[in-house]
Amino acid sequence: MAARNPGTKLDLEWVSKVRVNTQAVLKRAQHIQGQKIPKKQWQAAWLLKAVTCIDLTTLAGDDTPSNIHRLCLKAIQPIRYDLLKKMDMHNKGVTTAAVCVYPSCVGEAIITLKAANSSLPVASVATGFPAGQTPLETRLQEVRMAVAHGASEIDIVINRKLALAGQWEAMYDEIHQFREACGDAHMKTILAIGELGTFTNIYKASLVAMMAGSDFIKTSTGKEVVNATYPVAIVMVRAIRDYYLCTGQKMTRCNPV
After folding, report:
1. Alpha-carbon distance 89 to 74, whole Å?
2. What does the pLDDT read at residue 107?
3. pLDDT below 50 — which residues of the chain?
4. What sign for the dihedral angle of Cα 226, 36, 254, 63?
5. CA–CA separation, 174 vs 77, rounded Å?
6. What per-residue confidence (pLDDT) applies to 249?
7. Residue 24: phi, psi to the nearest 5?
8. Residue 151 CB contacts under 8 Å (≥ 6 apart), including other chains
9. Which pLDDT does position 250 carry in this prediction?
């Protein structure tokens, strides 16, 4: 597992000074999208790399043990063997980064992976996914339950109304409590960027999440109308860079969804 982000004290002065230049972000995103895409073996290499960064998930209302079983087997071998053999990658252990399920399905996922002799991590959503609107103690209990069942990564969602109201101290306190409830499990904080309104809010939410100890920050739950976009990725990555330059902590990573 990767190193942890220990977090820092909440720096409200830093957060209050944040202003994101929307036009500059959009221009930079347009430039990136206009660059040439690698072709042939280089494109294949990047696509394989992308697969290894995926948290393969279902998160559906009709998740059954058989669905979880199939999900885990797909995560272990996400690409057909014959295709991997043609690229001489059949013995390189290409898998997804993890499987991600609801807390109640963690145990089933772990059983399937162990039976397949796989050490693939099991991630679990929690904290009232996807809306994050359940009472705080209920959200904390979800984290504790997922960890107790064996999840090694916890995907939390922020309470968006706190971010929209500029209640950064309250948001920091909630995320910090989630981090403590995670124990040794890595914590990924989902910002639900499609519901934060502005790039400035996205940057501030990224910063506060990192200060509170998030090991990863993620764009979205996949359930919002707007999810990962190039401009949002630029804002979040620059927040990660600035956090590193200010604190020396370079553990936090950005996951587009």
Report:
1. 17
2. 97
3. none
4. positive
5. 37
6. 82
7. -65, -40
8. 103, 106, 122, 123, 124, 185
9. 73
